[in-house]
C-alpha cells in the first residue's frame, strides 16, 4: 500500500506507553474503553475514507475540518490500544490541531466547558468554575517532543517586548494610590498605537479590552483623555480600539468575566487589563491560599490561551515597607500570585520624592535591569538621572510636605503648566504679560511654566506686530493643526 505523509507523521509519534487502562468492555475496535470512536464518527456524520490498523488500534482517514482543501488521506483520527485518541493533519498550517480541537469542531462547546469555559451557573464554584471530566472520557495521548519540535519553532509573539507575550499573564504590583491605574491606562494606549511603553518597551499594536471594576464611567473617561493627551495620541487613533467593561456596582468574579471575554474571536485583542484583581476574586476565595490563587490563574491562563492575547492584572502590594523583600514577595496574598504569572511587574518606592523603581520577575524574557520612573501627572516617565540601585524608601513616594502621594492630584506647578498651555492654545499668539493676567498663578510660576513648555517643545516664541511695535509672543507650533496637550514636566 502506498504510504502517505500522514503515515510518517503518525509513525513519528514514537512508541506508546505499555501501561493499559483497566479494561471495562470492548467497543469492537480492538481496544478497551467505553468511548466508541467509530460510532461517534458515524453519529457526527464525519465521512471516513479508509480504516487501517494502527499501533494495536485503528486509524480512520478523514477530511480535515479546519481547511476544506485538506482532503483524506491528508488527515486521520486514530485510537491506539490504550484507548487514547488523536487527530493529525499532514499540513503545517494545521499542526496545532489535535483531538480536542477535532472533537470540539463537531461538538461545539464540549472542551470549552471542560477545559476553558467557566461554568456560569455553578453557584458553589466548588471547582473554581470548571466542570470535571466525565468518567468515560477517553485519555488523550500526550505529544512527544518530536511533535513539540515540529509544531513549535519559536517563542510566542511579543506584545510588550521584554515583558509579555501572547498567551502570557502579567501582574502590575504597587502600593495603594501610587498610580497603578494610570500606569495600566498608559499600557493600554501604547499597545493600541504601538508606542513605546514607559519610553522603554516596544509594543505590538492591537485592540485592548479594559475591565475596570473600581472607577465610575465618568472617571474612566476623564483619565483616558488625560493619558492620551499626555502621550500625544489622538482620539481617532484609539477610540474604536479600546473597549471598556465598567463593572463598578455590578461586579463579576474571574469566572463570570468569561461571559465577556470568551465572546471574542482568538487574536481579536492583543491585551486584556483587569483593574483591580482583588475585586474579581470568586466568593469564598482566600487570596492567602496557594491552591485558591493557582485555580484563579488557571482560569486566567485559559482566557489568554483561548484568545491568543495577554492578560494584565492590577494588584496591590502588601502593607508596610517593601524594603528588603524579593521582587516575587511583593504583592498581597499567597506566593502563587507571583509564581503563576509570566511577568511580575513591581513598582518599589525610591528614597527620592515621586520616584519609583521598576523590577520584574520574567518567565520567557531575559532578566530586566531595574528602571527608574518619575511621576509626572498623569504618567510615569523614565528618569535616567535617578540611581535605581539607591536604597529603597521604607515609605511610599511622597511629594513636598511629606503627605502621602496621591497621583490623582497633579502638583500645583503641573496645574499651572496646564493652565498656561490651555491659555496659549485658546489665545495665542499671546504675550507673557497677558498670560499672567489670564492664569491665576504668581508671575514666577507663570514664567517657569512657560520655560518648561519651551523646553518640552510644546510652544514656540515668535514676534508679532502690535500697536506699540513688535513684541515677543507664544503660540503652539504649527498653530491650526491641533494639539493634544502638554507633556508633563
Description:
This protein has 489 residues and is α/β, with parallel strands linked by helices. It has three domains: 147 residues, no CATH class; 225 residues, Rossmann fold; 64 residues, Arc Repressor Mutant, subunit A (Orthogonal Bundle). 27% of the residues lie in helices and 19% in strands. The chain is built from 14 helices and 17 strands. Strands 9-8-10-11-7-12-13-14-15 form a nine-stranded mixed beta sheet, sandwiched between helices. It has a four-stranded antiparallel beta sheet with strand order 1-2-3-4, with helices on both faces. A two-stranded antiparallel ribbon has the order 5-6. A hairpin with a 2-residue loop joins β1 and β2. α6 crosses α7 and α12 crosses α14. The chain starts with a helix and ends in a 14-residue tail after the last strand. 37% of the residues are buried. The C terminus is likely disordered.
Amino acid at each position: 500500500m502506498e504510504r502517505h505523509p500522514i503515515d510518517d507523521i503518525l509513525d513519528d509519534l514514537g512508541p506508546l506507553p505499555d501501561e493499559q487502562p483497566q479494561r471495562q468492555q470492548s467497543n469492537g475496535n480492538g481496544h478497551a474503553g467505553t468511548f466508541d470512536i467509530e460510532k461517534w464518527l458515524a453519529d457526527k456524520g464525519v465521512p471516513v475514507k479508509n480504516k487501517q490498523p494502527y499501533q494495536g488500534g485503528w486509524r480512520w482517514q478523514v477530511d480535515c475540518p479546519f481547511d476544506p482543501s485538506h482532503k483524506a488521506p491528508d488527515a486521520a483520527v486514530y485510537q491506539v490500544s490504550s484507548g487514547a485518541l488523536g487527530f493529525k493533519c499532514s499540513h503545517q498550517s494545521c499542526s496545532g490541531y489535535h483531538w480536542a480541537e477535532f472533537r470540539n469542531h463537531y461538538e461545539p462547546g464540549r472542551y470549552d466547558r471542560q477545559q476553558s469555559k467557566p461554568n456560569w451557573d455553578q453557584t458553589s464554584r466548588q471547582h473554581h468554575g470548571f466542570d470535571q471530566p466525565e468518567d468515560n472520557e477517553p485519555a488523550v495521548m500526550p505529544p512527544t517532543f518530536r511533535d513539540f519540535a515540529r509544531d513549535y519553532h519559536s517563542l510566542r509573539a511579543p506584545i510588550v517586548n521584554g515583558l509579555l507575550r501572547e498567551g502570557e499573564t502579567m501582574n502590575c504590583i504597587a502600593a495603594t494610590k501610587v498610580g497603578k491605574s494610570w500606569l495600566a491606562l498608559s499600557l493600554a494606549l501604547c499597545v493600541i498605537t504601538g508606542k513605546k511603553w514607559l519610553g522603554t518597551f516596544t509594543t505590538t499594536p492591537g485592540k485592548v479590552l479594559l475591565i475596570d471594576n473600581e472607577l465610575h464611567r465618568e472617571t474612566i473617561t476623564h483619565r483616558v483623555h488625560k493619558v492620551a493627551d499626555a502621550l500625544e495620541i489622538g482620539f481617532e487613533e484609539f477610540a474604536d480600539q479600546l473597549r471598556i467593561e465598567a463593572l463598578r456596582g455590578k461586579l463579576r468574579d474571574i469566572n463570570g468575566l468569561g461571559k465577556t471575554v470568551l465572546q471574542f474571536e482568538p487574536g481579536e485583542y492583543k491585551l486584556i487589563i483587569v483593574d483591580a484583581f482583588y475585586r474579581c476574586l470568586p466568593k469564598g476565595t482566600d487570596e492567602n491560599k496557594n491552591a485558591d490563587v493557582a485555580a484563579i490563574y488557571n482560569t486566567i491562563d485559559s482566557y489568554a490561551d483561548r484568545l491568543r492575547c495577554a492578560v494584565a492584572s492590577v494588584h496591590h502590594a502588601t502593607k508596610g515597607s517593601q524594603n528588603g523583600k524579593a521582587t516575587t514577595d511583593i504583592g498581597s496574598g499567597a506566593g502563587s500570585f507571583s509564581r503563576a504569572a509570566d511577568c511580575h511587574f513591581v513598582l518599589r518606592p525610591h528614597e527620592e520624592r515621586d520616584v519609583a523603581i521598576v523590577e520584574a520577575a520574567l518567565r520567557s524574557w531575559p532578566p530586566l535591569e531595574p528602571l527608574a520612573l518619575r511621576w509626572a501627572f498623569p504618567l510615569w516617565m523614565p528618569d535616567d538621572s535617578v540611581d535605581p540601585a539607591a536604597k529603597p524608601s521604607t515609605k511610599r513616594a511622597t511629594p513636598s510636605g511629606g503627605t502621602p502621594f496621591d497621583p490623582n492630584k497633579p502638583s500645583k506647578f503641573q496645574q499651572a503648566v496646564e493652565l498656561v498651555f490651555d491659555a496659549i492654545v485658546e489665545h495665542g499668539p499671546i504675550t507673557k504679560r497677558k498670560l499672567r493676567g489670564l492664569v491665576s498663578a504668581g508671575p514666577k510660576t507663570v514664567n517657569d511654566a512657560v520655560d518648561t513648555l519651551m523646553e518640552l517643545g510644546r510652544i514656540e516664541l515668535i514676534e508679532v506686530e502690535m500697536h506699540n511695535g513688535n513684541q515677543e509672543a507664544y503660540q503652539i507650533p504649527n498653530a491650526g493643526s491641533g494639539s493634544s496637550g502638554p507633556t508633563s514636566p
